[in-house]
Write a structure and sequence with these properties.
mainly alpha, 2 strands
């Protein structure tokens, strides 16, 4: 890593070149494993919830809060956790997040009542918020910007594998060992990787000036995002769209106050290089649109396959398996396309394939063939995997290295808000249309995915700006090239 001093006294860094290959592989392993643990935890919980409800004598609302509490906690804290990683080191936040996530999982497995399960799921969301931006921040610190696409593709492939394996693994564990066993699944890898992370040092920019944490800004953003997720999840659970309007209005108002503060404060939570980047904004918008379409379509399809076509959960998982496989296998190909065609063309192609997949699934019904179902899920997974690799690469790469944690937090926030939005939209449309046929809901989701095409235009093309950051970062990168 080379470091240079800007005129204002801050030190910026160009990371990646000084990291030994063995340590780089270890960082990649930790990043991938961290993402897999979080993805696997969410999928196996879905399988375990019905048995958990019966065993603990919980109400349906209480069981829902085992997911809702986690979502609100993680979405509220992701960006602030990313800023903490930028300041104190991503490997430290990764270690704390891993160890805490594993400990909370073990606590849930030993919980005596549903109240403890909900409380520990909220705690798990806090540690998950520390963990997730750090997995991207460590990659940004360890790899040169022009070599980020392949590590991100491997990370996406691993998430696809977790999504595919989660329902199957969860089903086997719950059937033979009970619901508590799924929460011990991640314990050993989380504790091992957390302990290893404490001994590994990842290069990070070190500012010379005293940079204060924007606690008021962090609180405003946490309130805005927490309220947004709570409103969207509540709309999906209750099926009454009109009740979401006040919550959305309050969330929008708090967001406006947050943005106004960020533009005026001396030490903003979102630096100008992030807040004012058109490429980053476009990539985040594409992630929200794509994840909303993807998870919303999966929600509607699962409803149709089980409640209309009469499939059991295992057969439903197997029917949707081509989507996870396509995501797992297609991500490396997206990295190659990204390098050859640029972010804009790759994101456009991925968004188009995703939209087509949602439209194919909109034909779900009594006469739908297995080939058509598998083809729809395959297109869905391939398109989403491509969009996820491309948009994540733009978000993480096109900000200064010293703001990589914030960028990672924003990326993860988009991937948490998008699914909640997609499920809320699908539920609202199904409620308004009587819930008889899935066509209207999936068509609405396809239109939302197609809106991502407009946002893709704002992403950099081949030969466009390779990095977006502060002028001092670009100036010092040029200086590094000129100096012997």
């Amino acid at each position: 890593m080379t470091a240079t001093r800007s005129g204002g006294g801050a030190v910026t860094a160009t990371t990646g070149g000084a990291v030994p290959a063995a340590r780089r592989r270890l960082i990649l392993t930790g990043s991938v494993l961290g993402a897999v643990i979080v993805a696997l935890d969410g999928t196996v919980l879905t399988i375990a919830q019905p048995t958990l409800q019966r065993d603990l004598g919980a109400s349906f609302t209480q069981v829902q809060w085992t997911s809702t509490g986690y979502l609100i906690a993680v979405a509220s804290l992701l960006v602030f956790a990313g800023r903490l990683g930028d300041r104190y080191g991503h490997h430290r936040l990764f270690a704390v997040g891993m160890l805490g996530f594993g400990a909370a999982s073990a606590g849930i497995g030993c919980a005596s009542g549903v109240g403890w399960v909900i409380a520990l799921r909220v705690a798990q969301g806090v540690f998950g918020a520390l963990l997730q931006p750090a997995t991207l921040g460590m990659l940004r610190a360890a790899y040169p910007p022009d070599r980020l696409a392949v590590p991100l593709a491997l990370r996406t492939s691993a998430i696809g594998l977790a999504v595919a394996a989660g329902p199957l693994v969860g089903g086997v564990l719950v059937t033979h060992l009970g619901w508590r066993s799924v929460f011990f699944l991640n314990l050993v890898p989380a504790l091992v990787m957390g302990a290893v992370a404490l001994t590994v040092r990842v290069p990070a920019p070190r500012p010379t000036g005293r940079v204060r944490l924007d606690l008021p800004g962090a609180c405003l953003l946490a309130v805005a995002l927490g309220l947004l997720v709570h409103t969207l999840v509540g709309a999906a659970e209750r099926g009454r769209p009109a009740e979401t309007v006040p919550g959305l209005l309050v969330s929008a108002g708090v967001t406006l106050v947050f943005v106004r503060r960020e533009r005026r404060t001396a030490d903003p939570l979102l630096p100008p290089a992030v807040l004012g980047s058109a490429a980053v904004g476009a990539a985040l918008g594409v992630l929200v649109a794509a994840s909303a379409a993807m998870l919303g379509a999966m929600f509607v399809s699962s409803y149709v396959l089980q409640d209309v076509l009469g499939m059991d959960p295992l057969r439903t998982s197997l029917t949707a398996l081509p989507g996870a496989v396509a995501m797992m296998l297609g991500a490396p190909g997206s990295a190659v396309l990204l390098r050859r065609r640029g972010a804009r063309a790759t994101a456009l192609a991925g968004t188009g394939v995703l939209t087509l997949g949602v439209l194919v699934l909109s034909r779900l019904g009594e006469g739908a063939s297995t080939v058509a179902l598998g083809g729809g899920f395959l297109l869905l997974g391939a398109g989403f995997g491509s969009v996820m690799v491309t948009a994540t690469e733009v978000v993480v790469r096109h900000v200064p290295a010293e703001s990589a944690g914030v960028a990672g937090g924003l990326q993860q926030t988009a991937l948490n808000v998008g699914p909640a939005l997609g499920v809320a939209v699908a539920t609202a449309v199904m409620s308004l249309s009587g819930g008889v046929a899935p066509g209207p809901a999936l068509t609405a989701l396809a239109c939302g995915a197609a809106l991502g095409v407009v946002l893709c235009v704002g992403m950099p093309g081949l030969g466009g700006p390779r990095r977006i950051g502060s002028p001092s970062v670009r100036d010092h990168e040029r200086r590094d090239v000129r100096e012997p």
